[in-house]
Amino acid sequence: MHTNRRDLLLAGACAASAALFSSVAARLRAEEPNPPPETTTIRIAKNPSICIAPQYVVSDLLNAEGFTNVVYVESDAGMEQTRAVARGDIDFTLHFSGPLLLEIDRGASITVLAGIHVGCFELFAKKGIRSVADLKGRTVGQQGLGSSPHVFISAMATLVGLDPAKDIEWVTSASVKPIELFAEGKIDAFLGFPPEPQRLRAQNIGHVIVNSALDRPWSQYFCCMLAGNREFVRKNPVATKRMVRAMLRATDLCVSEPALVAQRMVDRGFTARRDYAVQTLADVPYNRWRDYDPEDTIRFYALRLREARMLKSNPAKIIADAVDWRFLNEVRRELGS
């Protein structure tokens, strides 16, 4: 059978990816601290968003932390995932900060443990729309009230003086995804998460009016945070700390070895497009978890969503009820802050 240069390069990348993760896992096993985790099974979410790359390459690091059974549970990237964590169907996930707060406000049994990365969402608009303020009276696509795009755009609108409930015409379609409506010119704006922005840029569709990796204030706060089922965290503190440590090490790998992380995501079936994965790892700032305070993110989004009349609790109540930074602080000291 004929083997071309591309096949050889791909085979080499796969081998290098496997070797990297094997060596990291072996080193961690050699350093393994006591005591062992209270459980050897851990369930984490799998969804279409690829900005949560650390979650998709963390399994080897979790194995090294003593978890022999790492299970990925199919979910969406919005409300259902949050509710699955609250029910205990998923133990941990990386999830968008704003939507997490809405479910916590409604009493969801969730504990936020760490901020992971900044800047994964981008707001695209058609020609003639230059800012969020220009969305007044415009059609904006979203998957449903309380979905991640709805929450983030509502926060943006409130910050510039719009009433998201009255000033924006929300378009929800059960059969056609918002990105398809935008690509077909049927709506005026669309907020995308990787790999959607990568696709729109590749196809030269629309233009970006907010890039949360670059534009203040969004670039100053975590987009995705590590959250766990509250009862799991309470009962399994050793396992929880090991999960936090593995996820932050996986985040560091996204910075130090992006090409190999992208290949790993493809090899394990988390995404089909290596080029979009490579671009995502270049676009999203995975290097800021040591610098930013996750509690600032909770305060910021809680205030914005209260202003939008989407949240009843004040930031202090959410912080008191639903965050636990003990594990993050310990891991920061271990890994170097």
Describe the structure.
With 337 residues, the chain is an alpha/beta fold. The protein has two domains: 5-119 and 222-335, D-Maltodextrin-Binding Protein, domain 2; 122-211, Periplasmic binding protein-like II (D-Maltodextrin-Binding Protein, domain 2). The chain contains 16 helices and ten strands. It has helices spanning 5-30, 53-56, 59-64, 79-87, 97-105, 148-159, 164-167, 178-183, 196-202, 230-235, 237-256, 258-267, 274-283, 294-307, 315-322, 326-335; strands at residues 41-46, 69-74, 92-96, 110-118, 122-125, 139-141, 169-171, 189-192, 207-211, 222-229. The strands form three sheets. A five-stranded mixed β-sheet has the order 7-6-8-5-9, sandwiched between helices. Strands 3-10-4 form a three-stranded antiparallel β-sheet, sandwiched between helices. Helix 12 packs antiparallel against helix 13 (274-283). The longest helix has 26 residues, at 5-30. The radius of gyration is 20 Å and the shape is globular. The protein starts with a helix and ends with a helix. Residues 6-11 have low confidence and may be disordered.
Could you describe the largest sheet, including whether it forms a barrel? 5 strands, mixed
Q: What do the pLDDT scores average to? A: 87
Uncertain stretches of 5 or more adjacent residues = 6-11
Strand content: 15-25%
Distance between the termini: 51 Å
Global morphology: globular
Concise summary:
The protein folds into 2 domains: 5-119 and 222-335, Periplasmic binding protein-like II (D-Maltodextrin-Binding Protein, domain 2), CATH 3.40.190.10; 122-211, D-Maltodextrin-Binding Protein, domain 2 (3-Layer(aba) Sandwich), CATH 3.40.190.10. The protein has 16 helices and 10 strands. The protein has helices spanning 5-30, 53-56, 59-64, 79-87, 97-105, 148-159, 164-167, 178-183, 196-202, 230-235, 237-256, 258-267, 274-283, 294-307, 315-322, 326-335, and strands at residues 41-46, 69-74, 92-96, 110-118, 122-125, 139-141, 169-171, 189-192, 207-211, 222-229.
